Amino acid sequence: MARQLPVFGAVARAARRAVRRQVDVPRLAEAQVEVLRTVEANPGVGIRSVAERLQLVPNTVSTIVGELVGAGLLVRERDEADRRAARLRLTPAAVERLASWGAAREEVLSAALLRLDDADRRAIGQAVPAVRRLLAVLEETAGQDASRRGTTTGQSVAGSRSTADSTP
């Protein structure tokens, strides 16, 4: 079974490539996309909280945030209660970019699923809850491993080959 898992990464990469053909925007690293999606789901979140959620070290997230601020996709605001902390918000450009990427992803995946027969579509639909549970277990295990070491895991991946094609 473990040898079958790389298919998930391959499906994700193929979907990203198909979406990129439809959405003409500069590429972002996967880690940058993850930060944007975390801020989208948690407006006003702080860097440390993003790092914990993504299991990255805060310095890495701070670097990524700086890149996204420079690209006009994130706004970093000082927390009024704690002037040392920053609160993160998406810019209108980031909101639009994530929305157009999401719409294109939905279109690409829907079209691909329509090319499969009913049995395959049902099998995929039935597998999704189990795959989500597997993801939760893997993330939980990674979090436990990091807490045993006393740090969060991760390193800056901006510009690496594996993440450079992850854009929205």
Spatial ordering of strands, largest sheet: 1-2
Instruction: Assign an overall shape.
Output: globular
Helix content: 55-70%
Percent of residues in beta strands: 5-15%
Number of helices: 6
Backbone structural class = mainly alpha
Q: What is the CA–CA distance across the termini?
A: 31 Å
Residue runs with pLDDT of under 50 for 5 or more positions: 152-165
Query: What's the main sheet like?
Result: 2 strands, antiparallel
Strand count: 2
Question: Could you state the order of secondary-structure elements as H and E?
Answer: HHHHEEHH
Overall pLDDT = 86
Question: What is the CA-atom radius of gyration, in angstroms?
Answer: 18 Å
Fold and architecture overview:
This protein is globular. The protein is mainly alpha-helical and 168 residues long. It contains six helices and two strands. It has a two-stranded antiparallel sheet with strand order 1-2.
